[in-house]
Amino acid sequence: MKRPLLHFPTLAANLTLGDRVCMSFNDGQVPEFGEIVVWDVQRNKAAIEFDSDGRIIPYSPQKLLDWLKNQKLTLARPLGVRPDFERLTTRQQQTVRYREAFVKPMLGERHPQTEAYLSSLIPAVVREHRFTEVPHWKTVCRWYHQWVLDEHDMTAQVVGKRNHKTRVDEDVETVMKRLITDLHFKQKKKAAYIHEALVVELKKLGYTGVKIPSERTIHRRIQALPRLEVIASHDGEVARRMEARMNLGGHEEYNILERVECDMAHFNVGVLDEYGRYLGPLSIAFLICCGTRCIVGAELVVGKHKEDASIVIQSILNSVIQKRDPRFPMGGIAYVYVVDGGPGYRAQTTKEFIEHGLKSNLIILPSRTPWLKPFVESFIGALKSKWGEDLDGYLGAFDREKYSDQTLIKAASLTVDEITRELWAYIEKYHNSPHSGLQGRTPASVWRVKARDRHPVFLDHLTDLVDTRGLYIPNRRLHHVKGVCYQNQWFNSAELQALYHRLHGNTKHKQKPVVDIYVNHLDARGISVVNELTSQKFDVPIVSHKLSKRATFAELNAKQLHKTIEEETPTKVDSDDPITPGKTPGRGDNTPLEIPGQPVVFEDLFEQKPPHSPIGRNTSPSPKPAAPTQDPAGDERYYKGDDDIDNEFDSDDFGEDD
């Protein structure tokens, strides 16, 4: 497997044999990476071997140079090893970022160290990064010259090399290190106590004529110790892990869509449908661009406590397809997707979709390491505190001993459409608010600036992708006439019936054949059935309903449930039986309410929607109920249409940012 690459548009005077290149013509296609395997200018021969399928295509050198000049062909440099920032002081890290801001734009220039060029570059960099100190152009030349000699490693010239010998005797150094380990690591002693112990210990050992290190020297040695190891020895492993979540040295700067972090947020709030029926708790899958802090994709799910591959794939699809709403241009295919160890993110179908369908890289982080994806974790934390706590019916952090499903049912008051509109209003406000991690700039303005230098690549044709039905369901019974049933819905086709006869044969046994299927909980229009004779998958449409638009299994099943909140909530009748329902059951056993456990899908961001609701459910309009629903408190819940809800944000509020 080839080494990972970072795709930075870089101007170069020439190409050479072995260069890694990226070919992209900004026509909506996925960029292709390759390596120049033939380069002979005298014979007018050149060829590129592409990583995707290994094919070698010949080109003329002049044609490749023209593409390079027009940035249709760009150099892709290898992903370098980042310096160990944990061992750098905060001041050193700030110096590294300060100097890199000036020298990186000089890399593609033909004459970068001229006074005329730097006189225009330095003021532009100072304005962009809002620096207070303006360096001299000769100083920037010196930084750039040393940076090139150090192979683009700014840490080497900031930290420097310590070649001088230590002024502490070797034997004294050994005793001092042992005391620091015994007294500071294990007993939390300070530098003054260790200095006194060092004087006593050296006298015992007979070192009378040597120079004893000062208390300041011991303090510097303690400060140079690994911070997390010291915390682990003082307060334990749990404290070390909690401290590791805090980033004291700043984050690495990324290009647009260079790194996208994914995660799902669960909210302890119940959601209703438009008729007042309880659907389940709320979950939202987010994708955030680390280079711009923009939300590039989201998928709202109701009634699903754990994510599966179909939800994850749908959230990624929402990010790679261009939205039609002009206020939401954020999106595109990312170079790297960073996910946690959840079942939906580590599923094989998710991996195949990202690596083979999108031609991107996937990084699966270890379990319980949220500090390794800090951007999406920070956004979700702010979302729960600023947006979630303002939701009607939000119960705060989930506690099994404090809350139950009945508690969510009683507290539920918002519908899917209302939550969708409030979430979109928050995301739109977030994109146009100053961000501390972007030096006071807004995520939307940073996206516009970076998108001009590197255009996002969107996915235009879903039919060219791998199957997006990511949930594997084995051993489903195959019926002769009806087909296959899943979640109370029947799927059938002529090809499926032909498979039944081939599997069943002419035998007279009553055992019906079984097949393996792949489903997407967010799209009930069809399933994929595996032909065990050929190991190939084929599409089987739904026959229970005539669906012209995408609908979820939960939405189809919810139409069969006619119990409202009043019927779902137990009412107290007497002290002997405090949970007897108010309505007397009929004959037979009581049937408990089956709350749909599948997610409720919402309208894709990229579909044409009214200006005030770019995120909504992808369902056909339902008729209004004949009468309002009466809740246990006696309040009436009327159907609230789109015209009854005012839009909180106007398009005039989101102009260009400074």
From TrEMBL:
Comp. bias intervals (Acidic residues): 643-658
UniProt GO molecular function: nucleic acid binding
Protein's name according to its UniProt entry: Transposase
InterPro entries per UniProt: RNaseH-like_sf, RNaseH_sf
Region named Disordered: 562-658
Signal peptide bounds: none
Protein origin, superkingdom: Bacteria
Protein's organism: Neiella marina
